[in-house]
Amino acid sequence: MVLDLTMSMAVLAIMGAIATIAGCIEDLESDVGSQSNPNSQVQLAPQMGLLHRIYNKAISGEPISNGFSAVIGGLVTNVLLNAKFFPLTAIVLGAFVAALIYGIFATTAYAGRVASQTRFKQPLYMDVMRYTTPSIIGHNFIVCFCLVSISYIQYAILGYPLSIPFLALIWGISVGAIGSSVGDVHYGGEREFQNREFGCGLNTALSGRIVRKAESGLRNSLDNVWFCAKFGGPATGIALGLTVFFSSWPTTIWGYTWTAMGVGVIILAVMTVMNRLVEINVKKSYGPYKEDKNEKEAAA
Asked: What is the C-alpha separation between 185 and 38, in angstroms, rounded?
């Protein structure tokens, strides 16, 4: 009994570690491709007369695009497993196929968006597409590999009744949702709008006025990744890793019982209180939310 519990906790720890990597890399992938919320400002920039060299794909929202990619990886992996491939080989090949398809969608989305902005003279930089798209594919490959690996562990080792593609779909949607909610704060709020005061928001009159100059030369998507890898990516990874660990830890110890559900509720309550305390501390440290003086002048 003790040995079984120890092995279950070891498997759970491995899943949490893999999920942490997946969350971190997913957020960085969305940064290099300008995927989620900040993408709307990148798209508006040429309309404001601000041409840029930032990749602008936004296939869809992060949950949908990552769920789509993960389920493809899960499907290919499932087919290869039925064909008697080794599990690791099947997972790698499944993630590779999913990443390639994801790259195709990213390329067509970026080219299509720029083409639709011809009237605003926004160029389609071929070098940006050439060196950014492989980075997007590489990041997505790691994400798919991690998510399908978690799904395989749940199906083959833990005995989940759901199929690998379905589990991969759930985790893909989850990692996209967490990346969109956690990672974006440290991308859209700090990297592309560094000329705004903390918490001031963005006035409608200033939509599209992104920061286009980097530390050296014009800013591009790889500059965004370099910045976000310092905090936004790791924060997203920790969020997903904790989600996987704390959502599975009670049932691993107590099984699917009311005790496990009660412990889960307690964990949720504690984390809610901690989140509130962090928010209060941030407001006290950086001052109250206020409207930027430059935005008032622009609105006037």
From this structure: 9
Question: What residue ranges do the domains of the chain occupy?
Answer: 2-241
Q: Do 93 and 80 touch, CB atoms closer than 8 A?
A: yes
Range name among 30-34, 78-82, 136-140, 289-293 with the lowest pLDDT average = 289-293
Q: Report the DSSP beta bridge partners of residue 213.
A: 218
Task: Pick the more confident residue, 282 or 99.
Answer: 99
Residues 6+ apart with CB under 8 A from 1: none
pTM of the model: 0.86
The first and second tokens of residue 279, run together, are 């928010």
Q: Backbone phi, then psi, for 116, in 5-degree steps?
A: -75, -10
Give the pair of three-digit tokens for residue 145: 């590999």
Contacts with 36 (C-beta within 8 Å, 6 or more apart), sequence order: 30, 58, 61, 62, 179, 180, 183, 184, 188
Q: Using one digit for the tens of pLDDT, what is the confidence trace for 215-273?
A: 778 888 888 888 888 888 898 899 899 888 888 887 777 777 888 889 889 988 998 99
Query: In angstroms, rounded to a whole number, what is the distance separating the alpha carbons of residues 67 and 73?
Result: 10
The residues that bridge with 269 in the sheet, in sequence order, are none
Q: Are 73 and 127 in contact (CB under 8 A)?
A: no
pLDDT, tens only, 79-127 = 999 999 999 999 999 999 999 999 999 999 899 888 888 889 899 999 9
List, in sequence order, the alpha helices (H) in 60-212. 62-82, 87-115, 126-152, 164-178
Counting every residue written for the chain, the total comes to 300
Residue 73, C-beta contacts closer than 8 angstroms, at least 6 positions apart: 91, 94, 95, 97, 98, 99, 144, 145, 147, 148, 168
Nearest to 116 by CA among 125, 124, 104: 124
- How far separated are the first and last CA of the chain, in Å rounded? 71
